């Protein structure tokens, strides 16, 4: 079909816009996670979308063909085999938060599952996404690292304080005799 004929058909224009939007979302995201989107009630879907939105994650159901075209246009064809059946996509700037919310939802509801995804442009399978979701949040990890640095310093401060007290006690003991 000629380009002129495509331009006259609104459905082609709409699909081209959708592909361009998907490409932009993929490019702007650090991670995209594909989930099997079936068996979810409207109530559960609304709750999941609200949690993801609060975490800054764009979650939407998309046509597999349009997703495949968008990924192929960006040179990411490693997900092609996962574009089958009902597919929802999470576009995330914070991969850990998105994986955690989706993992909890899947664990609690058992109605959907991960298919695969991209993490910083690299393929990640369903197990990898679930493992990422089980990791502590960034804030918790930073607190743990800070605790690792603080513990030896605290121990050094206690030892220094004990040495000081021992010296003071030794200096006070001859004076008392």
3D structure, described in words:
This protein is α+β, with helices and mostly antiparallel strands and 177 residues long. The protein has two domains: 3-135, Ribosomal protein L10, N-terminal RNA-binding domain (Alpha-Beta Plaits), CATH 3.30.70.1730; 136-177. Helix content is 63%, strand content 15%. The chain contains seven helices and five strands, in the order ααβαβαβαββαα. Strands 2-3-1-4-5 form a five-stranded antiparallel β-sheet, with helices on both faces. Mean pLDDT is 85; it is low at 1-5.
Q: Could you name the CATH homologous superfamily of the largest domain?
A: Ribosomal protein L10, N-terminal RNA-binding domain
Terminal CA distance reads 108 Å
Radius of gyration: 27 Å
Low-confidence stretches: 1-5
Counting DSSP H or I runs of 4 or more residues, the number of helices is 7
Q: What portion of the residues fall into strands of 2 or more residues?
A: 15-25%
CATH topology of the largest domain: Alpha-Beta Plaits
The string of secondary-structure elements, in order, is: HHEHEHEHEEHH
Backbone shape: elongated
- Mean pLDDT across all amino acids: 85
Helical content band: 55-70%
Under the CATH scheme, which architecture of the largest domain would be assigned? 2-Layer Sandwich
The secondary structure category is alpha+beta
Report the top-level CATH class of the largest domain.
Alpha Beta
Query: What's the β-strand tally?
Result: 5
Number of domains: 2
Q: Spatial order of the strands in the main sheet?
A: 2-3-1-4-5
The major sheet is characterized as:
5 strands, antiparallel
